[in-house]
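Q: Hi! First time doing this. I have a protein sequence and I read that you can turn it into a structure. Is that right? Here it is:
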Amino acid sequence: MASKNKSRAGRTTSSLPAPRRSSKWIVLSTILAVIAVAYNVLDRMLDQFYIFTPQELHSLAQSAITKHPNNTRAVIDEIVSTLSESHGRTVNTNEEWIFNNAGGAMGSMYIIHASVTEYLIIFGTAVGTEGHTGRHTADDYFHILEGEQWAYKADALTKEVYPAGSVHHLVRGEVKQYSMPDTCWAMEYARGWIPPMLPFGFADTFFSTLDFPTLYHTVRITGREIIRNLLAGKF
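A: Yes, that's right. Below is the predicted 3D structure, encoded as structure tokens:
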């Protein structure tokens, strides 16, 4: 009789954790649902957070190229000076160049602006490069300042060619292979959710280059600019 009671007690005790596990899944599902709803709401509000427009930047790039033909140094100076006047402290005028390895491509960049919803950089190479664009949570506008950029989608049999003065729009969520066959410099503008793009820019450090000093400076400058803009009310 005692053994039967023990057996029943054992069965009763073993059944107790099940409701606890179930409640954990309910809590987790609720949290994920809240995050999804918040993301969708904020995603619809993205336009309210932007301070740049693709049209404004395209006009600026074309104007600078026209003013300073065959002088990329002067073109960059013109772009940064104009943006500093029009956008104030959201523009980083402290020119800090760092290498960037992402998607197999290598170049160098100068971060002009970085925030949660936008980044603006000068990116390019003096010797050429090619790689994977990445599949991103932001629209990416590549304003060519010098040289050419080539690109193609997986189902394309011919390449897209973007010369100086043109803009290559990589639509959010799309992916291409791209190439800068020789010297090429561009003003790259991304608008959307920037933080989810960062792992793409960091992964090559851990799985290929092991260039941790460059990673440190990338994180330092990017983080500094995002925090500085957040403190100024720029999301």
